[in-house]
Design a protein that fits this description.
single chain; 462 residues; alpha/beta; 15% strand
């Protein structure tokens, strides 16, 4: 990421908020406190959020403390707050470091440019160059959704078998029929979508690279259509309770040598004249949205060939995914569905994979997780993670994620990039034994993951 390179940082510092004994006790008593927001980031004392009483970092304006002493503790061993022998080795790598402070200041700038700051918040003066750079970061986050979709489908081997049906021919030897394409349409379900993320309907920014969501997805899928030339139709179906209130259907036409064209109306209207056949390869992208829970929509939409989950939160206690996921394991081996999901942090991805593995939704864990003892479940399922079935799963850093860095909403020194981590595979067959799965604490592993692919350029980003 160019932004990190400019700060001479190799990896994004995701989890930097120090959890002391005092903070652990406060969180145990009240799990809803927000460190650095409504509670001191160093001692968890409740805040009034007043400059006359509390202390806010003047550089980034994103982290609050109850006193100057607590601010100094959080910046322990950094800059003017460096205190000899006052921090242990782990604390030296955490807290409000200059890098975290610089990234949080950029978060503030991006929120200001996007217009999502509190109306009473102080504005940071910025140059035209800084404003344009901020617009690039904001746009890249939105366009990371279609970019990730195409990159994963083209680069990850577990999708190859399913997509090869779109370009190879087969013969039905039982009836001696001439060779025909096994499949010409591809249906992708994007589950849990919302108009603030995957299906950004109201996103408007005065920036030349910001196009409408429909053309962005169609343009990103152009490389996929070129690779699998048997595809004539792609159904891209967005489903979720936070989709647009009115269900939408939009069409885009992909012509490989002429770019993306918006289709006006329905070409199947009665009385319409036959159009001249275009010799150039063409694929129609049909984008639809359904504002409902996934299971409720199944009777109205085509069955999926691929399922996609952007930041689903499988282990979040606020969501219950069991009913949806059970639909994907009620299949035989011949109709198993490939999927992928993204998360904002590495820990979320590991936790989600363990949830799916323990729940028998996938047959094994990716190779990059097999050596992490804390990520493997106990009991009779532990050996499955080393089976050949684990080759159907993958996990790594997403090269198509955007460049916008965001601040955690609960711990002020924690940072993330949307869709930065990706995992997936093929849903397992299940055995009807899915039970309530208790959340397990997983320690953060050492550097074990690799980027899914760095060989291809992002098809939707600048």
């Amino acid at each position: 990421m160019d932004l990190l390179n400019s700060l001479n940082v190799q990896e994004l510092p995701e989890q930097q908020t120090r959890i002391t004994d005092a903070i652990s006790a406060a969180l145990e008593e009240n799990p809803d406190i927000r460190l650095g927001f409504d509670a001191c980031c160093s001692c968890a004392k409740p805040l009034q959020l007043s400059d006359k009483v509390d202390i806010c970092c003047k550089t980034c304006r994103r982290v609050w403390y109850c006193s100057r002493e607590c601010q100094q503790k959080d910046a322990c061993n950094y800059g003017r707050y460096k205190i000899n022998n006052s921090c242990d080795e782990q604390e030296e790598q955490e807290g409000h470091s200059p890098v975290v402070c610089a990234l949080l200041r950029i978060c503030y700038i991006d929120d200001q440019v996007e217009g999502s700051l509190d109306p009473d918040a102080k504005k940071i003066p910025m140059s035209k160059k800084e404003r344009e750079a901020s617009k690039d970061r904001i746009t890249s986050e939105y366009e990371s959704y279609p970019a990730t979709l195409t990159n994963i489908l083209m680069e990850v081997s577990c999708f190859e078998f399913f997509l090869n049906r779109m370009k190879k021919q087969k013969v039905d030897r039982s009836i001696g029929r001439a060779p025909i394409l096994a499949k010409t349409s591809l249906t992708i379900h994007i589950i849990g979508a919302s108009e603030e993320a995957e299906f950004w309907g109201d996103y408007k920014l005065d920036h030349p690279s910001c196009r409408d969501v429909y053309s962005a997805y169609a343009e990103a899928l152009t490389d996929l259509v070129a690779m699998y030339n048997g595809i004539t139709t792609i159904h891209l179906i967005f489903i979720g309770p936070n989709c647009p209130v009115k269900n939408l259907t939009k069409r885009r036409s992909i012509q490989l040598d002429q770019g993306i064209k918006e289709k006006q109306g329905d070409a199947r209207k009665s009385g319409s004249k036959k159009r001249k056949q275009n010799s150039n390869p063409t694929c129609e992208v049909v984008l639809q949205s359904y504002r409902s829970e996934y299971v409720e929509s199944l009777t109205n939409i085509p069955k999926p060939d691929v399922c996609v989950f952007y930041n689903p939160g499988f282990t979040c206690p606020d969501y219950d995914w069991s009913q949806t996921l059970d639909k994907f394991v009620e299949r035989d081996d011949a109709t198993r569905i490939p999927f992928f999901a993204t998360t904002n942090t590495e820990m979320e991805a590991i936790s989600d994979l363990q949830f799916l593995y323990n729940g028998r939704y996938i047959d094994g864990l990716p190779a990059t997780l097999r050596e992490i003892d804390d990520a493997l479940s106990d009991g009779d399922r532990s050996s499955v993670g080393h089976s050949e079935a684990a080759g159907n799963t993958f996990f790594g850093e997403n090269p198509s994620s955007g460049t916008r860095v965001r601040q955690s909403g609960n711990m002020a020194n924690d940072l993330f990039v949307k869709n930065r981590w990706v995992y997936g595979g093929i849903f397992g067959c299940g055995d009807g034994s899915n039970e309530e799965i208790k959340a397990q604490n997983i320690s953060k592993p050492k550097s074990t993951t690799k980027s899914v692919s760095n060989s291809r350029s992002n098809p939707a980003l600048l």
